[in-house]
Amino acid sequence: MPVCKVLYLGNTIDYMKQLLSILFSVSSFTLSAQTIDKYFESIRKNEAELTAFFQQMPKGGDLHNHFSGSIYAETYINYVVDKDYVINENTLEVRTAAPDGDEWAHFSKLDKEGTLPAYKQKLIQKWSVKDYNGISYPSDKQFFETFGAFNIANKGAGRLDTGLLELKRRALTENVTYIETMFTSIPCGSLNKIDTSYNHLLETAQTKRDEALAIKQLDKLYKLIEDNNAGSCATVFNEELTATHHRLKIDDSVFTMRYQNYVVRVVPPVDVFKSLVVAFESANSCPLIVGVNIVAPEDNEISMRDYWLHMEMFKYCHKKYPKVKYAMHAGELALGMVKPEDLTWHINAAVHIAGANRIGHGVDMAYEHKSYELLRYMAKNNIAIEINLYSNEFILKVKNDAHPLSLYRKFHVPITINTDDAGVLRSNLTHQYVLLAERYKDVSYEEIKQYVYNSVDYSFIKEESIKDKLKAQLDARFSRFEREVINAYSAH
Ligand SMILES: [Zn+2]
After folding, report:
1. Rounded to the nearest whole angstrom, what is the distance from the C-alpha of residue 66 to the centroid of ligand 1?
2. What is the whole-number distance in angstroms between the Cα of residue 202 and the centre of ligand 1?
3. Considering the entire predicted model, what is its pTM?
4. Domain ranges of the chain
5. Average of pLDDT values for 392-411?
6. 38 vs 12, which has greater pLDDT?
7. 251 CA distance to ligand 1 centroid (A)?
8. How many CB atoms are located within 10 Å of the residue 474 CB?
């Protein structure tokens, strides 16, 4: 009996100790949380202080990141100058070799003449939004035309290495631990011989919105694509990318990168579908390629005309490759860009027809048909929204409360904060968080932290163990970051 009593007392003491430590940690946690909130609210109106705060804050991942648009123009310029390509002195077009005409000059010639620095400056202005005055040229054109210009610098060996390392370096400097980049569309020469007469049949299906007819054609096309070695195109691509990724040691203890394949939406239907099948095939069989996307301006004539058909193509590929995830640029539109009735259905179709796992941009949400239902559906089915604040401001002229962020928040759609094209936009992820805090004053620090964790939870990373590792790192980094903020705050 006495033994039991001692044991009982011992347990009581342990229990009391535990209770006290829980109470203490809860109260000190509440105190820290309150202090951080207080500090955060006190700097909300000050851009420099917000920048310092967010630059240091762990930001998890950037899920809406275009590889070629994230590289700064200086990198492309160094490449074409090193190669001594030629530039058209009037239009600033760059080519590998000079065509006829005396307006073309090698970069080495410009260097000898002393005009190279001026041309470099002009190229930065042409290949990004730097010094853009907002008047002399449409901002969406200024933005999208840069990608055509990058093609010339995108071809050389070694170019990928420089770009991948640049993205990683930038991520590390601003406390970003994961990037899911939209890398490329996969070339597949063996598919060139596929009969283009399917274009006409698919267009008929598109015009009539005849799903049965579309599927019938896609079935035939799919067989042709498979018979013409789509699988080997995917395999070759996967092997090269995997080798590059490992050779450059992109993944390490503090950083992880994964890739999405994309298809370009401004080409004829057969070309979109060929590219889409190879993209799915590749993503289905490579651990590093975690998803598929659809890119190029959504308001382009072909994008608008074939939008429904593209959604059917994704739905079709999902049935063939059910494990492959896909995020879709949908609703990257604003009033005035297209007819108002065309603002009502792109996100709906991406969600309900294509079955997208995440939506990129989703800016036209307020105009979507039965938007409240759509928002509820997205929240219920964990379809995250990839918010790109600065990109939307520049390309669509949508910002502040015209942006549907508040709608996504109200309906509890999972939110992630992203860059889109940090290179073209001369921006970074820190800048996106600064805009978020400055413009949406009711978004608390706790909510922002949730967005950061969302960037891991809603990533397409295939291995749960890597997600767990990234979240554990976030826990550790946040507690260090918060301690440092509190120390700095209490010192004043
Ligand atoms: Zn994008």
Report:
1. 6
2. 26
3. 0.90
4. 61-67+156-480, 73-127
5. 97
6. 38
7. 23
8. 22
Task: Tell me the CA–centroid distance for residue 334 and ligand 1, in Å.
Answer: 15
**Secondary structure letter of residue 184 according to DSSP:** E
Q: Residue 363's pLDDT band (boundaries 50, 70, 90)? A: very high
In angstroms, what is the span from residue 404 Cα to ligand 1's centroid?
17
* DSSP symbols for 439-475: H-TT--HHHHHHHHHHHHHTS--S-HHHHHHHHHHHH
Whole-number Å distance, alpha carbon 173 to ligand 1 midpoint, is 23
Q: What is the average pLDDT across 73-77?
A: 88
CATH superfamily of 61-67+156-480: Metal-dependent hydrolases (3.20.20.140)
d(CA 63, ligand 1 centre) in Å = 10
Residue (of 73, 122, 80) closest to 97 by Cα position: 80
Which phi and psi (to 5°) does residue 388 adopt? -130, 80
**What confidence tens digit (pLDDT) does each residue in 410-447 have?**
999 999 999 999 998 999 999 999 999 999 999 999 99
pLDDT of 264 > 80? The answer is yes
pLDDT on residue 24: 46
Segment 272-288 mean pLDDT: 98
